């Protein structure tokens, strides 16, 4: 097995990124406009707001919720969200008695079309290693203390299946509209390391 | 592949980092570039996006290249490795250019003749149809094979040899173990298998269930 480099001084990743960009651009192998387009897309238009819209709709529209749990990919596509790392999305519901939490122990697979790029804690070795061994302890460290009668199901994304957690609708939000619910749906709740916010 | 990337259940990483709600997508501008360049490098090196080959490149990074440079550092390093594998880049080309950028006088290696893999995905993405029926039905007890291949695999070490129950039959998909090495897509049925925490970690484990998606050839029947 080869590795990227031998012995010697390790140059900063930022500098090597600039070097690679130059080498590929000079030879016409990449187009800087395409590169900048990818960056802008993930900085501005693909993020957890997409998933929040899916969840708020499911909370207010029982028929949509049924479709979402039966075929997540299709129901999410109805709202216009699809693409790389979202080829097959399965939605699981958190309830008062079952709590799902998602991880990718082998890399950092994540449903980009609905949640954007993963946050740093999700990519961190401590989360990837520990959530599959001691999820209750890890969730408590992250601020989510679950009572002993709640069953935990950890979803390790080892193939191209991407999981999205449908969090419980917070109590006392019965009078809120779909639009008013969207800000309560956090990225962390849709991965399963937090509950949805309260108004 | 066994190695640093296969982290599930390993110890010694310390506490998890609490989420920061205001975390930017890219903490620094170079990270956005590294992300985009890694995606584009995959196309340049392979002729089409081969996510499995990219993941295998990540797995082959050494400790420093995988851990010390952080997540996007890891991505740019894997992109560079794919490009070196296909001789789009000469070994050391990126380091030489980086040194030039910071004012050192270094001779850059000559541009090599690329020898890219003869690779064309059969279709976009990884989902495929297969002619045979799934070998394992929902509710079936199955054991994850106890195997430790030197090449790419998506069977994590902590599940090998462990017994679980098929919870869902997922759509069939390209087999990463061969596709990562440009040895064919070999689409397989994929199963979400549910394991009990006691089966994985012993009688003292926290009580919980865990599911993982396992390709058909990773599984065997239990007696």
TrEMBL record, chain A:
A Pfam family: NHase_alpha
UniProt cross-references to SUPFAM superfamilies, sorted A to Z: Nitrile hydratase alpha chain (SSF56209)
Statement: the UniProt record of this protein carries the keyword Membrane: no
Enzyme Commission code: 4.2.1.84
Domain of life of the source: Bacteria
Keywords: Iron, Lyase, Metal-binding
GO terms for MF: nitrile hydratase activity; transition metal ion binding
Residues at which Fe(3+) binds: 104, 107-109
InterPro entries per record: CN_Hdrase_a/SCN_Hdrase_g_sf, CN_Hdrtase_a/SCN_Hdrlase_g, CN_Hdrtase_asu/SCN_Hdrlase_gsu, Nitrile_hydratase_asu
Domain Nitrile hydratase alpha/Thiocyanate hydrolase gamma, residue spans: 14-194
Lipid biosynthesis found in the keyword field: no
Reaction catalysed by this enzyme: an aliphatic primary amide = an aliphatic nitrile + H2O
Similarity field: Belongs to the nitrile hydratase subunit alpha family.
The protein's name in its UniProt record: nitrile hydratase
Protein species of origin: Streptomyces griseochromogenes
UniProtKB/TrEMBL annotation, chain B:
The protein's role, per its UniProt record: NHase catalyzes the hydration of various nitrile compounds to the corresponding amides.
The Nitrile hydratase beta subunit-like N-terminal domain, residue ranges: 1-106
Nitrile hydratase beta subunit domain sequence ranges: 128-220
GO MF, one annotated term: nitrile hydratase activity
Reactions that this protein is recorded to catalyse: an aliphatic primary amide = an aliphatic nitrile + H2O
Class in the EC hierarchy, top level: lyase
Keyword terms: Lyase
Enzyme nomenclature, EC number: 4.2.1.84
Pfam families given in the database record: NHase_beta_C (PF02211), NHase_beta_N (PF21006)
Protein family membership: Belongs to the nitrile hydratase subunit beta family.
Disordered: annotated span: 1-23
Protein name: Nitrile hydratase subunit beta
